[in-house]
Amino acid sequence: MKRAKFLGAGALVMMMAGGAYAKTDIKVGMQLEPPHLDPTSAAAGAIDSVLYSNVFEGLTRFGADGSINPGLAQSWEISEDGLTYRFKLAEGVTFHDGTTMDAEDVKFSLDRARAEDSANAQKALYAGITAVDVVDPMTVQLTLAEPNGSMLFNLAWGDAVIVAPESIENIKQAPVGTGAFKFTNWVQGDSIMLEKNAAYWGTPAALDKVTFKFISDPTAAFAAVMAEDVDVFTGYPAPENIPQFEADARFQVIVGNTEGETILSTNNKMPPFDNVKVREALAHAIDRQAIIDGAMFGLGTPIGTHFAPHNPDYVDLTANSAYDPELAKKLLAEAGFADGFKTTLKLPPPSYARRGGEIIAAQLRAVGIETEISNLEWAQWLEQVFKGKDFGLTIVSHTEPMDIGIYARPDYYFQYDDAAFQDMNTMLEGEADPAKRSELLGKMQRKISEDFVNGYLFQLTVPTIAKAGVVGLWENAPTQATDLTAVHWK
Questions:
Q1: Which of 16, 66, 150, 457 has the smallest number of CB atoms closer than 10 Å to its CB?
Q2: The whole model's pTM is what?
Q3: CA angle at residue 311 from 454 to 487, to 5 degrees?
């Protein structure tokens, strides 16, 4: 009897050790839930956070270091004049429903993205494509109206992932991609579940099951991590807790850069923000460091233009809009608003917006600008602000990589319309010489800073809290994604 008990205990220890070693599921906490699951028809970064690379793939893809790597295209050739891109597709790729992925699907996806009635949030990136031709089932050719040195980069965005006509009708609720994981279930308001794609064409995922758990409240996020109800919390929303996690051997803290320019976005066509002096006053009323300290507990890099500070072409223009409330009052008086004015401040769910909004509202009040704060869910924000342009001010982090080109779109939600900037952007798209591109990017940064298009706040930092045994998470976020394709337990 004693011997049997001893063997049972030993077997239990081995099972426990083996179980820990063989752990193949993971729970990932996130603050924001996607409004739907089609990355090709919405501006919500939360969609890419769940699906980019995991479920959907493009011809090219971003690496963890921001590099552009082969995706569904295993190779490509670019003509000498830069007008023709011929992509050779990877062999043996199937969608999660078992249908074959081929050149016809690429044509369908890119034609849909650039169509006149396209709902693609980055439609402008693909507008220069004049034709998508199927050369053979494994070869597709893009023809451009003019050279675009950013095309491989643009094709790596989540907005350019390859989808199939057979499954497009239900993509918002039941996405079907080609990635290492396939979608299994969405409990709205709670979680999204993925499972390993056993028929994946590339390097298979180490994980068998993934659960994305949506926890919007920072206090609840802290409780979930501490109770180990989640294994990872990406974009952790309460940076004040980070020292506590750093002191706890159960956890690892990963703090990385993002492409997220966090801005006090301003409706340039809505009076009085159509007056550059009012926008300049707004810029000088903002104390960036107070926002970084108060909303982000010191995490974040001040910016003075819409460009990532870690980019080698970044120009530090923070002095152009230095905190100077007396100058702000003077500029308001010169613009005819000596007694100030009232406007709306519509805030999406992220902590940087909700917490930062309270601080900014107080700073603006100090110079005579009263804001009516509205806390919106993402679907409301997309409808009212992004699509409807029904706002005075909002706070949002633009997490798309290298996206200064949005300022060349007069119909973009902040409605900046400047011919000189548009010309510079057109020149940039056609310029391949690195030195000339750097010069143009510097001019573009200065232009929007001097026009005070938006209030430039800080570059968003992404803190991730994970259990000590999780390996393979991205440190930085070259695009908004929680890429789990190489994640495993040690």
A1: 16
A2: 0.84
A3: 105
